[in-house]
């Protein structure tokens, strides 16, 4: 086999391997972008569902948010709340076992606050 043919075959194989690697890398980056968008949409849908469920149960959103802000202030004094999202509602029989989980975004990151119902008040659940 002539030398020039061996060189052509080696270059061709190298080119195919490089193009394959670039294709795999591009597909991986594209999938990561889609995963992030899907996660954001899922979080948004979960928050909307939790808010709808809370409203359906007659829970006063303002009181819940106020309790979540107070619990956050106790845990992280001085941290400014940038965003407050209701992400989960647990409505068990009776009112003493109701729970609401808020995700608080502040200057230090994201924190979850779990509130429980005690009578007509919302308080942070210890150890959550």
Describe the structure.
The protein is of the alpha+beta class and 128 residues long. It has helices at residues 3-56, 61-75, and strands at 81-90, 99-106, 109-118, 121-124. Strands 1-2-3-4 form a four-stranded antiparallel β-sheet. A hairpin with a 2-residue loop joins strand 3 (109-118) and strand 4. The mean pLDDT is 83.
**What is the spatial order of strands in the main beta sheet?**
1-2-3-4
Helix/strand/pairing category:
alpha+beta
Please tally the β strands and state the result: 4
Main beta sheet strand tally, sense and closure = 4 strands, antiparallel
The sequence of SSEs as H and E is: HHEEEE
Helix-residue proportion: 40-55%
Question: Outline, from the CA principal axes?
Answer: elongated
Low-confidence stretches: none
What is the overall number of helices? 2
What is the rounded Rg? 26 Å
C-alpha end-to-end distance: 73 Å
**What is the residue-averaged pLDDT?**
83
Determine the strand fraction and express it as a percent band.
25-35%
Outline:
With about 130 residues, this protein is α+β, with helices and mostly antiparallel strands. About 55% of the residues lie in helices and about 25% in strands.
Q: Would you spell out the secondary-structure blueprint of this structure?
A:
Layout: H1 3-56, H2 61-75, E1 81-90, E2 99-106, E3 109-118, E4 121-124
Antiparallel strand pairs: 1-2, 2-3, 3-4
Key traits:
single chain; 128 residues; 2 helices; elongated
């Amino acid at each position: 086999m002539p030398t020039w043919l061996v060189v052509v075959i080696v270059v061709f194989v190298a080119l195919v391997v490089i193009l394959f690697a670039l294709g795999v890398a591009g597909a991986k980056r594209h999938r990561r972008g889609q995963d992030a968008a899907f996660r954001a949409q899922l979080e948004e849908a979960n928050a909307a569902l939790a808010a709808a469920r809370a409203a359906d149960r007659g829970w006063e959103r303002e009181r819940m948010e106020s309790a979540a802000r107070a619990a956050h202030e106790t845990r992280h004094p001085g941290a400014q709340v940038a965003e407050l999202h209701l992400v989960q509602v647990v409505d068990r029989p009776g009112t003493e076992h109701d729970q609401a989980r808020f995700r608080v975004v502040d200057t230090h990151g994201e924190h979850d606050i779990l509130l429980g119902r005690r009578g007509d008040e919302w308080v942070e659940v210890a150890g959550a």
